[in-house]
Amino acid sequence: MRHINTPTIALARQTLHNAMTGIGWSPSPIFDAQLALVELLVNAWRHGDTPAPLVEIVSVNDSLRVAVTDESPVIPSAPPLSLLAESGRGLQLVAGLTRSWGVDSHERGKSVWFTMGPVA
Fold first, then answer.
1. Could you report the per-residue pLDDT of 76-97, keeping only the tens digit for each?
2. Which pTM does this prediction carry?
3. Which residues are CB-neighbours of 112 under 8 A, at least 6 positions away?
4. Are 101 and 68 in contact (CB under 8 A)?
């Protein structure tokens, strides 16, 4: 398990890359996971009003779980979008790149997570 506090996008991407490479993931799913992680980080900064979200990377057997924790209690959703919408596609992107995603509420905020796996 790895935790990153006060992450930058570059640090978060590199830490995830190192973790996934170390357990045998190939480049394509690593890129997908990095893109999904960046989306969750940007959402935590923008919508979670959290300047220093916590990133947690957990590898169990052949699967990976990545979570970004912020201080907002507001649960995100991925509503249907118009073709003309200029934003709001982030969670749809996460859903398309990962095996699953979800939200865990906490006493003070929430964790938005995604899973990848098994190692290909």
1. 876 676 666 666 678 889 999 9
2. 0.88
3. 40, 43, 44, 67, 68, 70, 76, 101, 102, 103
4. no
